[in-house]
């Protein structure tokens, strides 16, 4: 059984927040209220300035109606008592009608107050009106202001002096009403937006989050896989991808569990196999002392084969301990190594398969000889299996060709056969263990091992397309970079 490799002191993954205000729903509701209130503030600023202008215009129009009547009575001055009643009714301190040639005081108090500010209703700017409105709203109430504007359609101007207390009170009432109305609008808008977005976003997100948490608790259970939602929006697509990823992860976990159990069994078997091969190695050493030409011919090959088998068993045990051996690189003659592969595979003319080695004797490869042998052996063994019971249709011989060329610091090795070629299914998972086999019953480990060893040398391996039937693998192995001090020491020696 595969155990959880997470350290005991590692904290568990965080669970979903249960607090309303800490969750997306609460944050969404608060942000909606804040943004609606901000919009109301942006609306309130010009509207309160406009309310102030309208209020002053209404006061001027009211005063102008009374002033026109009095102005029609030429050379008659209103009694002081009537003036006080008029000023009290209009909430002003003085009323004046001005014309180009003359001005007439309609009503005034005994001692006109000092003026704190003047405002022309007919001529103002938007920014100026906003500035004056907030000045009155924040600092007004006891100041005296002079307000004037046109008197109807005539060329006369109506002017009045008044305190701004009534104006400020009216503006405060207006601001309070706007504020209360903004609160109501914000709550209604936030509730509607919250309900809509909560249904479209928050609920599906919570469902995805709950599925991920449940799947992480028990990833091997098929019941933990999310049932993908229907639809084509982003969240539905995310749910479909999550469900697909969970299914693939379950397959991977199941496969890795099987591989772990298989690896344990192989390690046990390999341990006993190593002991058997060690005994065979001791016995084979004595063959070199036998004075027989046939024995002397095959004894070196047999000894090398057993040595390699012992080395493989040791590497399998090391791999089981997750301690992959690093390549022990040195310059190796490539031609004898490839010839040993042919002898080990027993590829000769009697087998009906030709093994053609097109490699010059002077080509040296900077590599681990045993690992490079395994790479070439795995690829050539696959070629032998492909050529067995297969006859090329164009009458060509069944042949495996191995060639190599050095270009600068890179050696390119080509391994070609005249077999049936690689099936399309095998090409899709070419270097994947247990999935890249080209024949029934194969494991696909050979190419996976070859690729891993080539990558450990900093090289590349690839299947090359060719116009004729068969397969062609190309391996490129670079030399190790030379350190400058080592190069100089070699030059001095």
Index terms:
Heat Shock Protein 90; disordered N terminus; 11 helices; rod-shaped; 493 residues; 5-stranded mixed sheet
Order of helices and strands: HHEEEHEEHHHEHEEHEEHHEEH
**Main sheet strand line-up:** 2-1-5-4-3
Strand content: 5-15%
| Low-pLDDT regions | 1-13
CATH superfamily of the domain at 326-492, please? Histidine kinase-like ATPase, C-terminal domain
CATH architecture of the domain at 326-492: 2-Layer Sandwich
Mean pLDDT: 78
Structural class: alpha+beta
Shape: rod-shaped
**Number of helices, counting only DSSP H or I runs of 4 residues or more:** 11
Cα-to-Cα separation, first versus last residue: 59 Å
Largest sheet data: 5 strands, mixed
| CATH fold-level name of the domain at 326-492 | Heat Shock Protein 90
Tell me the helix content: 40-55%
Total DSSP E strands: 12
Radius of gyration: 49 Å
In the CATH scheme, the class of the domain at 326-492 would be Alpha Beta
Domain HAMP: 199-254
Pfam family, one: HATPase_c
Catalytic activity: ATP + protein L-histidine = ADP + protein N-phospho-L-histidine
Subcellular location: Membrane
Report on this model:
- The longest helix is centred in the middle third of the chain and has 53 residues, at 165-217.
- α4 (165-217) runs parallel beside α5 and α5 (234-285) runs antiparallel to α6 (293-320).
- Among the domains are: 24-188, no CATH class; 326-492, Histidine kinase-like ATPase, C-terminal domain (Heat Shock Protein 90, 2-Layer Sandwich).
- The protein contains eleven helices and twelve strands.
- It is an alpha+beta fold and 493 residues long.
- It starts with 23 loop residues before the first helix and ends with a helix.
- The strands form three sheets. Strands 2-1-5-4-3 form a five-stranded mixed sheet. A five-stranded mixed sheet has the order 7-9-10-12-11, covered by helices on one side.
- The protein has helices spanning 24-72, 80-90, 126-139, 165-217, 234-285, 293-320, 334-344, 369-387, 424-428, 445-456, 484-492; strands spanning 94-98, 103-108, 117-120, 144-150, 157-163, 330-333, 354-358, 364-367, 399-407, 410-417, 460-463, 472-478.
- Residues 1-13 have low confidence and may be disordered.
